[in-house]
Structure of H-type small acid-soluble spore protein:
Amino acid sequence: MDSKRVEQIINSSDNIDVYYKNTPVYLKEVDHKTNKVKVENLNTHKDFVVHVKTLNENYGMTQ
């Protein structure tokens, strides 16, 4: 995934599934300079920061 796609998902009114290491996450904000994204783990409800390349929209796909 890239930062432009992350921004599209954040701004979308649709519910788009996104995964980090096969864990569902909610995208909160993106830093286009560093390509880092603040996400919330939907299982634990804890926030953390990841690189955009580690996110994907397909369960089972890892980068």
In short: The chain has one domain: 3-56. The radius of gyration is 10 Å. Residues 19 and 58 are 7 Å apart (CA to CA).
